[in-house]
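Progress report, Aim 2. The chain analyzed during this reporting quarter is listed below.
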Amino acid sequence: MLTKVIMPQLGESVVEGTVGKWLKKEGDIIKEFEPLIEVTTDKVDTEIPSPATGTLLKIYVTEGTTVRAGTLLAYVGQAGESLPEGVPAVAPQPAHAARVAPSPLPSATQDLGFISPVVAKIAAEHGVDLAQVKGTGQGGRVTKKDVLAFVEGRGAIPTAEIPAWEQPGYGELFRPTEEVFGLAKTAAPTPAPGTAIPLSNIRKSIAEHMVRSKHTSPHVTSVMEVDMSRVVAHREAQKAIFARDGVNLTFTAYFVVASVAALKQYPIVNSSWGADKILLKKEINIGVAAAIDEGLIVPVIKDADRKSLLKIAAELNDLAQRARNKQLKPDEVAGGTFTITNHGVAGSLFATPIINQPQCAILGVGVIEKRVKVIDDAIAIRPMVYLSLTFDHRILDGAIADYFLAKVKEALEKWR
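Predicted structure tokens for the chain:
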């Protein structure tokens, strides 16, 4: 049976995509949900899984070609199966192509949404029909934990590698804050000296965005030191409870909640510069920078002021996993009103991040480490972190910026 592979609409405002790389060639055998193609937009690279098991019979769109959502990309079927005649050649689409309605995905993926390669691999190894697995991820997405729980419920004993940060031990509380958003697990291959490195779409986008930001906003940075003792104690007491709900409670979640508290008290920081006005945002959408092999990407937690610590931690887990698996949708990296970047993953104490335009400010989080602190004229050892706030001096003066950063500090140091 022939199954169409079509260009999906990866976001509400995304009407086209570029075929970045075919992960299989014509004649290759592929399993349902196995990664088939990398699709590139101006924001993210996304792996698209195969809609069916079979042979990749015909590819109609070559790598580097941009086409509209709904365009036929290829056929998957049985070896030797006849293809329809008269399939039109695919021409590149102009950047201003009119918006088209999304074509429905094949039924196998329409109900399940994006399936990560890890989930697909576990399901294949244990013969699991993913349609029978109840998804607990965002939007009902089937996660790795869902599949493992399903397999375990049948009596099978999966052998899953436990991430280092989930191993028991007090020392984990003070490791660099890479728990969710941080260093990529595998470094990109290092080219030989003297060679030229081609620029990826993501690297081009990062370069343009950073240069534009420095040319747009007068950047100023303020730094404060925060005692994380209460947060550490709270996380230690709650992480097992969160784990029962399938959530890895990370320090990043606390920084998001503290930032929300400060943004609510000082809404001017949740704004952007207009031609003749300052635009205060109604929504509080927190972007959290994540390091992937190709560079940095900033998934966004929408309406963060309406979400609990548990909900925020769960979304951070989900967004981080899909960022590294190239499964984020363009809409999930758009619409941020404030950004947090955890530069402490490599041991950095503090930094001066570049503002994520058109936002007003960005919070930098350094490494959490035990340091000597003077408390009531006595020497104590406390888990400390430096927070840096880089802000647009057109919008914020130093006093307001410091009041905001002091509120973030207060929220963390007085955590209940």
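The CA atoms of residues 322 and 328 lie 6 Å apart. The longest strand covers residues 378-392. These observations will guide the mutagenesis work planned for the next reporting period.
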